Amino acid sequence: MKRLVLIAFVGWCFSFGASAQQLLNSDSSAVSNHQVTIKGEKVNYTATVGTQPVWDKEGKEVAYLFYTYYERSDVEDKTNRPLVVSFNGGPGSASIWMHIAYTGPVLLNIDEEGNPIQPYGYQENEQSILDVADIVYVDPVNTGYSRITDKEADRSQFFGVNADVNYLAEWVRTFVTRQNRWASPKFLIGESYGTTRVSGLVSRLQNSQWMYFNGVVLVSPTDLGIDREGPVAAANYLPYYAATAWYHGVLNPDLQNKDLEEILPEVEAFTVNELIPAMVKGGFLSEARKKELASKMSEYSGLSEAVILEHNLAVPTGFFWKELLRDQGLTVGRLDSRYRGVDRQDAGSRYDYDPALSSWNHAFAPAFNHYMINELDFKTDINYFLFGPVHPWDRSGDKTGENLRAALAQNPYLHVMIQSGYFDGGTDYFNAKYSMWQMDPSGKLKDRLSWKGYRSGHMMYLRSEDLEKANDDIREFIKNAIPKAGTPAKY
Fold first, then answer.
1. Which N-terminal residues, if any, form the signal peptide (predicted)?
2. Are 470 and 438 in contact (CB under 8 A)?
């Protein structure tokens, strides 16, 4: 990446509040000019690192959010230029993940499968969506460099499903106004808990800020408050188990020799048509039928029939991550089951650590700090919270899936795309499909709902092949979600 011009900005400063925490100036920005090659095209852009206040209901400043905003600089008229507002999840996670590994103009140094390599650092992201859309990466309160500034502030106004949506909606409205982007086609993208966030946000922005969006991208979505308790919750993991077992080569030869996307439709059909109806019967399911199902589940999951029967067909994910490769002395990752780990002992029902997450933390923090200092010329002694203190988090009243459905119904322009990794055990791909199916029980909105699968995990973009494919899917989604000039928003 070539840095062309750096504009110094003296508004960045340090101060110490009464709580003795170190803070940035709560309303400031610094701009620098850059160039990146995307899909063979040179793209000039400006990068703005900034802070913008959060105000309470009385208009008093209570916090500030840190953001990084990328704008293509050779586009004078922003009227038709899409704006993407990007959030990660946690809750309590900063926006670093998609920022420097997915859609932004830089890419952290990792190998083709997403494993960390040294020296730590970054490179141009030739797959970035900056060629087709401007992007702002937002760190919610107490993540990244964002902080509470009022030591007396009620933390409950930030840390909960609905509180999070409420203050962020006001913040996004202010940002769009300050950047003069009301006329632009607008998109939200969220990953993991960020999908809960953006599903609620699109509805809140539409109904309280009168800001309408063209699209929402849900990357590795949560359950979005959509009920799936009982047999459905237990059975829905089987397709993920099958994908993981296939990856590690532990299926029988008849299945192992098939391609992954040949196997999964078969497992999904078994799950929906046979396993869920049988598990509904609970303890009144005949022993013969239970054994028959356990045998089939063993064939698909790589687990023994015995341990499946010991769990009454409902094998917990934690046990699966420990059990699948137990005979090899290895565990598999939660967030990406391609990763293998080593525990203190092979015994037990749960692994010691998630080998996927430890690998990712290894790569991201050094690269991001290096990037901020050397490319964006942002220097501070403040710690960038990859995972910040946001607990207790109020999870009550989560109706974000229904909020998203209502927003779709009310806005004929709005489209939704879901992106899932087949090897993600934290927010598995089949439950993402299930959410999409249940979100629109009438079936009247399904032409604006789509799902895409990738051969990687929770952060599917860490695998270079999927980085390209997933970004291309976003490009196509943006293109298709913008109506032709003069097309009215009506049914």
1. 1-20
2. no
Token pair for 338: 């391609």
Q: At what angle do helices 400-410 and 429-439 cross, to 10 degrees?
A: 50
**CA pair distance 301, 82, nearest whole angstrom:** 43
Structure tokens at 15: 């101060």
User: Residue 398 in contact with residue 225, Cβ under 8 Å?
Assistant: yes
- First-last CA distance in the chain: 46
Q: What is the CA radius of gyration of the chain?
A: 23
**CA separation for the pair 297, 242 (Å, rounded):** 9
DSSP 3-state helix, strand, coil percentages of the chain (rounded to 5)? 40, 20, 40
User: Angle at CA 470, nearest 5°, toward 469 and 474?
Assistant: 115
C-beta separation of 421 from 429 below 8 A: yes
Cis peptide bond prior to 91, omega within 30° of 0: yes
Question: Which are the contacts of 43, defined by CB distance < 8 A and separation ≥ 6?
Answer: 35, 36, 37, 72, 74, 105, 130, 131
- Please name the residues in contact with 426: beta carbons below 8 A apart, sequence gap of 6 or more: 192, 220, 334, 335, 458
Separation of alpha carbons 146 and 150, rounded Å? 13
Query: Across-strand partners of 333?
Result: none
Q: Kindly state the DSSP code that residue 93 receives in the 8-state scheme.
A: B
Provide φ and ψ at 77, rounded to 5°. Answer: -95, 110
pTM for the model stands at: 0.95
pLDDT in tens, 369-417: 999 999 999 999 999 999 999 999 999 999 999 999 999 999 999 999 9
